[in-house]
Fold this protein.
Amino acid sequence: MSETKELTYSRVGDYLLPDLILSEPPEELTELGDELRPLGKYGRMRRSFLKEHRAISYNSLLLNEELYPHLREIDRIADERMELLMKELAVKNPSPDKATDPMGWTAHMNSLKAQAEELILSELIYS
């Protein structure tokens, strides 16, 4: 049997707005043992995408209190995927020697990171 909750409303001008209180921690902080961790880069990117381009999904997730767990999961998966893709791309495209050509190595690694991030954005963030 599901428990129903009584909604209360506040008058703002001519409108009655529901008093909604989310149980998420402030500023998107998550408890990890004794430390608090803010939402990561990919979680924030996903939130912005949902808010701007998928407003109905964003509001549904927010009101069902599933938004921040979803964002944290996307952030975790994206970080793991980035590490895996970087390793795979480095094996397929060996980089120049870092000691003899540091600028070439940096350019090569930045190129690999851009490729991996493009895949992550298309697969996880903007879908």
Q: What stands out?
A: The first strand starts at residue 9 and ends at 12. Residues 30-125 form one domain.
